Amino acid sequence: MKAIRYTDYQTFPQLVEVDKPTAGPGEVVLKVAASGACHSDVAVFNDFVEGTNPLCAPQFTLGHEVAGWADEIGEGVDGIERGEAYVVYGPVGCGHCRFCMVGQDTYCENVAEVGYLGIGLGRDGGMAEYVVVPARNLVPLGDADPVKASALADAGLTPYHAIKLSLPKLNKAGSTALVIGLGGLGLLAVQILKAMTSATIIATDTKEDALREAEKFGALTVPSGEGQTEKIRELTGGRGVDAVFDMVGVGPTVETAMKTVGTNGRVTIVGLGAAGSDYNWQWYKEPYEAELVKTYWGTLPELNELIALLQQGDLEPQYTTYTLDEGLDAYQKLLNGEVSGRAIIVPNERF
Ligand SMILES: [Zn+2]
Ligand SMILES: [Zn+2]
């Protein structure tokens, strides 16, 4: 079968012929319906050098945002039906530490023994006709579209996790939320906030078209640049924002987050931008009791919940599809910054 593989450090991926995988005990082979190309894949093949992360070292098949149909069911697997559609929870931990026990494999304490981070992250992923995954990592889709579901596996789950942890800040009338950065994750963050809270949603970005998209989903928008923080604060009645989500995580966006959060508010740095910020909250000045946290991806139960939002019709992920043969073009476009929304590779149209 064909697969898009990360073959060496700082080397553009290759479309190669590999053996079709088989399901070991507790595993399932999926016929891949959709596999999202992610900016973190670009970081892996473009920026990683030996030692950056030994758990995500070449070689492996890319693709950690995967949905497909169960094709081969391994020994000891119950409750998975051949031909049914599933979305894959990408992180794979040891399964028995205190984080894995609650489906939070992202923070597995035994990750070094596991030997990889997850599907398409050190272990073969879904940029192929077939992928083998632990049965535990499968979330049933029912009638939901596997292509849309794959777009949620990371780009939806990551904001969903951050938003869920911030709900205590938003569960009151008159609350406000700010989304900084309106790429795939940011636009989904706006929709998730709309579906789950009554907060006034403010969204900010440099790009005009991204602002217009966010408005379609019910956000008030403020462009980046001159007067940005003042305008955002004005939209909160001068109080500052209750829950800020920085989907970018670079110096200037972190600073915008810190300057706009209100007393008792919460800043979540969701984006994995490389640059930090020197900004400090000043003593004897608001915001008192504001908190700053960073999050990474999300949990297995949360992916299950997020699929319920998709099934209810509350989420409209933005994406463009490509065939597996066009997959390298998709990565090249991602590398060039020419992709808006998600680039989703569709290796198989149907089961
Ligand atoms: Zn991703
Ligand atoms: Zn674990």
TrEMBL record:
Domain Enoyl reductase (ER): start-end pairs: 10-345
Would you say which domain of life the source belongs to? Bacteria
Q: Name one GO molecular function term.
A: zinc ion binding
Tell me the keywords, alphabetical order.
Metal-binding, Oxidoreductase, Zinc
Gene3D superfamilies xrefs? Medium-chain alcohol dehydrogenases, catalytic domain, NAD(P)-binding Rossmann-like Domain
PROSITE patterns in UniProt = ADH_ZINC (PS00059)
Q: Which Pfam families match?
A: ADH_N, ADH_zinc_N
**What cofactor is needed?**
Zn(2+)
Family per similarity comment: Belongs to the zinc-containing alcohol dehydrogenase family.
Name of protein: NAD(P)-dependent alcohol dehydrogenase
